[in-house]
Design brief:
Radius of gyration: 19 Å
Organism: Amycolatopsis coloradensis
Shape: globular
Helix content: 10-25%
Number of strands: 12
Keywords: Signal
Protein name: Secreted protein
Number of domains: 1
Number of helices: 2
Strand content: over 45%
Oligomer: single chain
Order of helices and strands: HEEEEEEEEEEEHE
Distance between the termini: 16 Å
Largest sheet: 12 strands, antiparallel
Structural class: mainly beta
Length: 225
């Protein structure tokens, strides 16, 4: 994410030369409402003045083979800064409402945080995040999931050329970009009782790396801590 901040700063400097005061672009993009209530506090030994919270609002789509699942809105917050002059980050929260899966007789999928994240981007990827997906239906047990907290889905997202980085606002700093993971592997569903084979059949599971795509169009707003 440090490279994202540097890119934002460079883009803001360039934008200041070509736009009217108070405008980041000729045609402003619509902004979601950002919620910073789940921002984690900096560590006790954090370097003063270096920490900020980042609130993500994304629209996601998961494609499993030839099945496309619109995931709707995903919200994520985390804080980043420096401790002893070294980069550090603290995860806050992932929020996702159950998304209906078409053609599955009313089943829905809800993404949950899998316990690991790394948002320090580099030349190879934008970030990494562990997830698991809860499958919801009146006939399914509550523990029916794809991936688990103990064995999560590991998503490594890269920049999506179809949605290039864009500065939306200069004050507060707000940016937009797209990310994509084309290597996400999806195992068989687990904890689904006697309907496990039905769930796997309807979703096309297991589905190996290279057969799936996880895309997000993301807005991010930054708040100093």
């Amino acid at each position: 994410m440090r490279r994202l901040l540097a890119a934002a700063a460079a883009a803001l400097s360039a934008a200041a030369l070509v736009v009217l005061p108070g405008h980041a672009s000729a045609v402003p993009s619509p902004l979601p409402d950002f919620d910073f209530s789940a921002c984690p506090a900096p560590p006790a030994n954090a370097d003063p003045g270096t920490w900020r919270c980042e609130a993500f609002v994304s629209q996601g789509v998961l494609t499993i083979g030839d099945r496309e699942i619109p995931l709707g809105e995903l919200r994520l917050t985390f804080s980043e800064g420096k401790v002893d002059r070294k980069y550090a980050q603290v995860f806050g929260e992932l929020r996702h409402a159950p998304a209906r899966i078409r053609g599955t007789f009313g089943a829905a999928m809800q993404l949950k945080y899998g316990g690991y994240s790394d948002f320090l981007s580099d030349d190879e990827r934008r970030g990494e995040l562990d997830l698991y997906a809860v499958l919801r239906h009146p006939l399914l047990p509550k523990g029916c999931t794809v991936g688990t907290l103990d064995a999560p889905l590991h998503s490594v997202v890269k920049d999506d050329p179809a949605v290039p980085f864009e500065v939306i606002s200069q004050n507060p700093t707000t940016v937009k970009f797209g990310v994509v993971d084309t290597q996400l592997a999806l195992p068989r569903a687990t904890g689904c009782g006697h309907l496990a084979q039905v769930a796997d059949h309807l979703l096309g599971l297991p589905s190996p790396s290279g057969a799936n795509t996880f895309k997000q169009v993301t807005y991010v707003q930054f708040k100093p801590l």
